[in-house]
Amino acid sequence: MARAELPSRAQVVIVGGGVVGASVAYHLTKRGWTDVVLLERNVLTSGTTWHAAGLVTQARATDGTRKIVQRSLEVFRNLEADTGFSTGFVQTGTLNLAMSQDRWDELRHQATSVRSSGVEAHLLNVDQTLEKYPLLNPDGILGSLYFPYDGRGSATDTTTSLARGAAQRGAKIFENVVVEDVLTRQGRVVGVSTSLGDIEAEYVVNATGMWGREFGARAGVDVPLQALAHYYIVTEAIPGLTRNLPTVKSGDDYAYVKDEAGAIMVGFFEPGSYAWSSRGIPENSGFTQLPEDWDHLWPFYEKMTSRIPILADAGIKLHFCGPESFTPDGLYHLGEAPYLRNYFVAAGFNSVGFLSGPGAGSVLADMIVDGRSPIDLPELDPARVQDHETNRRFLEQRVVETLDVSYEVHWPFQQRTSARPLRRSPLYDRTAAAGAVFGELLGWERANWYAPEGVDKEYRYSFGRQNWFEHSAAEHRAVREEVGLFDTSSFGKLLVQGRDAVTVLQRLSANDVDVEPGRIVYTQWLNEHGGIEADVTITRWDETRFLVLSGPATVNRDLAWIHRHIGPDDFATVTDITGSLAMLSVMGPDSRRLLQPLTDADLSNEAFPFGRSKRIDLGLGYARATRITYVGELGWELLIPIDIAVHVYDTIVEAGAAVNLRHAGYHALNSLRLEKAYRSWGHDISAGDTPLEAGLGFAVKWDKPGGFIGREALQRQREAGVKRRLVQFLLGDPDAILFHDEPISKAGVQVGRVVSAQYGHTLGGSVALGWIEAPSRDHESGWYEAGDFEIEVADERIPAKASLRPLYDPKSERPRS
């Protein structure tokens, strides 16, 4: 290819010629953006696309990723008519088998969760399962979950068809062109440098597959992924084999099975894989095939010959091992990089790139053209990445576990075990000695519950009440009735300071944060469409310093959002000071009685009202005490310098003996906040939801000087009305357990889904927050509360009470007592 053939500029440059990159190009051109260049260092599909098994399955982990696969299905059904080139897609359905009661329980809950996203799924008994797939040995099978609209296709053909469709509309596609660098200026991409010259560009898309981490690092973008060895076997042709049988997934055997051109493919998500080329994927590799390892694979394959006896007599045509990229949390990265404008990531697909790629490319194209995602996808946001997650040694341990557990039973509250412990509160040893059973969130070790003396400090998983249920219930009741102590040090703490700090935060915040020093303000940060980008509290320390308190999972995202909105003329800085301050939350009706003897500060309601923050003496040192709550009770959050954190903790615990102080963990925190209907960003609310829909209109100050980002869009919605609301629910059956993603019905018609849930020990049943949609904007608020609501739990509908106001302490009198 001559240098002159490469354009000197393009609106969008896509790097990577697999199914994802081709899909982005195709969908951009469908949206009318035809000045698109796709660059592939080798040839199209040569990374990992070429050896994809071709399954298209809708049983994804989240509502957003299921909706992406639904978009993929639309592409598979319509692409050939548009481009004239087949995708090879055939609708066969998928059978997920259960060989144990635990697996059957999982499938019952999975049937419920996928239905909340509009996915059709049916639980089948053994006879019905065998009718769908007669080759199965029925021994040990309890039943299956059947997805009738799943299918399979050809990854190579689909990529070719997408690329052809993009080219037909004007996109330019170049193979054997190496992108050596991404060009940036003032925090924004301006082009790429290639082996054949530079291309100016407004947007760059990293769709480089297993090279995504190294390619991202060139532009300072963190993309945590690691290539792992991944196996499948293809038999010789089997005479008389029925074509287009359903795909069979057998989690208990770590395997999937599909027929292919008269033969059978058996693929594996088995434990015991290994990281390949963790120090950097060879840049010149294409169509990579790794060495066979029959000793490793034979025990798994042998189990499948018992499951499908016809395999025992079939010869082996191909034993394939190829690399696939996996991520620490098992979810891919889709969206704009947090610190580099117009740099978009679409990588780390965890061996579901083919089934997700067409839909993911569609969504990413919409993000670029419209400036927002058409689907709420906080779980895929590249801004969720933590610093340690691109560490090679961390990835080698954690990402192998991602593959190891892929086909295991997915338990509620299941904790990862690798690469731990990593991030620890300064009070870690103290809380461990008090019985803490730690969970992990983005590297943080956090006390999820406390085991009393004589109780094993471990999780025993089930789909019912787990072994920690009663212990967490006791912690919950202690906070409601006496006083509880939470170590909340993992919460993010951002110091915004400077002459224009108030100007920046006023521009970001829907609420009014220009308050006197010592006040705390609850607020949302909105995008230009009125969607909630952050849900934070802001404490004004003095005229020029503000503390933004963020969640541990959102602090990096919130930090980037502030950086992005500090203008060139703003004299303001933001610093993450999470690691310099421990945080203890002392909550409950007896919290004042506990803390008052430990300080000379007056903690009375008159001297220290709700919503105030002060630096107080505590024990032998000083801490910042803020009277606020996330549990719905009287209490204080204490920010403590880490050098005296243990002293303050010891002081509180020693004094707590006189008032029955109890340690409490994050499971109790969640059940307490859900009884009070407090929102959690990324679970209940995110960028596709507005404050008016989320019931947070009270935190919007419409007429504050200067307005705020998103005000105009929110005002338009205020005038037009909303037709969806976030509603609190309480199940009528006190024994039923909700988790999330359960469908919500009214008068027998599905109207929404649960987004977060926990057992409410004070309310006496599972309590949840869920989004429901009215038939039109004309419905008054009463529609969202009145009527016969039901929530489906493990394939059974259970009556539920709905409320727009908190079911616990609706007037919020207790925190102000």
From TrEMBL:
It comes from the Bacteria. Coiled coil: none annotated. Residues 370-425 form the FAD dependent oxidoreductase central domain. Residues 12-367 form the FAD dependent oxidoreductase domain. Residues 427-704 form the GCVT N-terminal domain. Residues 724-809 form the Aminomethyltransferase C-terminal domain. Pfam families: DAO (PF01266), FAO_M (PF16350), GCV_T (PF01571), GCV_T_C (PF08669). Belongs to the GcvT family. This is FAD-dependent oxidoreductase. It comes from Planosporangium flavigriseum.
